[in-house]
Amino acid sequence: MEQQHYEHACIDGPLDPMAFIARLADSGLLTDYVVYERDDHWHVAGNPSAEIRVDAHTVRTTRAASDETAVPWTASPWQAIRAALDGLPVVDWNAFGWLAFELADVTKSPPASALAGEGGEEGDGLLAHLIVPRTELTVTEDRIHVRTLEPEITERLAKVLSACSEHTPDPVLRPVTVHGARKAYEDQVAYAVGQIGKGELDKVILSRSVELPFTVDMTATYVRGRAANTPARSFLLDLGGRQAAGFSPETVVEVSAGGTAVTQPLAGTRALTGVPETDTALRTELRRDAKEVYEHATSVKLAVEELDSVGIPHTTHIREFLAVKPRGSVQHLASRVATELSEERTAWDALSAVFPPVTASGIPKQAAYRLIRELEDRPRGMYAGAVVLAGADGSLDAALVLRAVYQHGGRAWLRAGAGVVGASRPSREYEETCEKLLSVAPYVVPKES
Questions:
Q1: 129 and 52 in contact (C-beta within 8 Å)?
Q2: pLDDT at 411 over 80
Q3: How buried is 315 (Cβ within 10 angstroms: 0-12 exposed, 13-18 middle, 19+ buried)?
Q4: pTM for this one?
Q5: Which cofactors is this protein said to need (predicted)?
Q6: Which of 36, 220, 366, 399 has the most Cβ atoms closer than 10 angstroms to its Cβ?
Q7: Which of 310, 343, 390 is nearest to 95 (CA)?
Q8: Catalytic residue among 37, 118, 250, 432
Q9: Residue 164: its pLDDT value, please?
Q10: Mean pLDDT of the 259-276 span
């Protein structure tokens, strides 16, 4: 198969990255696309040259309408995903996409057969969707760097940029009520506390959904929400009609091309009000709260054990411990754990070791999965999964999908959870979900007819 090489071009700024991305997303110039913000760089990938879809049994690679291969998987999909990417004819590829919460190693989750048909809230069986784009942009305030297999697109991108100076009216926001189904959620928390008291598990993250009674303008919501949030990563995607826009508070794993792997567990929460004196008092309370510190410390302990399983002996260490990070409407206790990957290990092994993250599942994970399936009324799908940027150079960056709005199949919804441990109070855990939902709910924009 003939190898394909990207052509490179630059479009000079200065520019407003968010204004350009909004124009581009709504222009129709890109079909399926992913926007992934990392360290003040917006990576935009669209017009797939190849797509990889994963269900409970198969990793399916599509290069064209008549060029599709399917590889079965049983114990783990990660090697099949990596092999599918390495087998593509695109030189120096980057892959973008999402992973469902239910996509987990058999060592940490039920057998794959138990997940069949549980591809998330949409129920279509899809557990992951990755693309290798024909066109990829890196957008900063200074310039747009273009990598493309379709050279004619560069001139059209420049036209999109020139249109950014045109005035657009401010979108109309529609208030979303985040308070609802309180008793049902508090009853679930109380039941989980009872299971923890019986020794069934140590921690579980329980979530609840908020249905939106209108179609969402995802691009406008992303722009408004990003202006009001302080995420570790942000993302906007539309793949196969499945849409999401979010402001991730933490990374699942960051792996450099040189083999350094870092994970960033966040656990322990207080509101962030915007009133300095109040926020300082809440931050002090958070650091002194025995329940919150215990919840965080147990999460860090498991993160150390997971990364240590794929690292060179004695290289796993805690880089940061019990810092407080502002994340939109809340503030979290935060730590960072790092290791150097063993020679025979790859970024996909590091992702496998920590996915789904402990801060969105529980301890031990397998027991937490069972309780989540028992108590939550729908599979999670993208919620508590990841949005991923992976490179042919061995690098990988995965953002935890939280603080997001989702849309697919005529439905739109928000979702948030809270970490439950033995000392949890149901009323407080419910309020925590409300605090987290307020990172997104005030910025949702309805789509005009």
A1: yes
A2: yes
A3: middle
A4: 0.93
A5: Mg(2+)
A6: 399
A7: 390
A8: 250
A9: 85
A10: 92
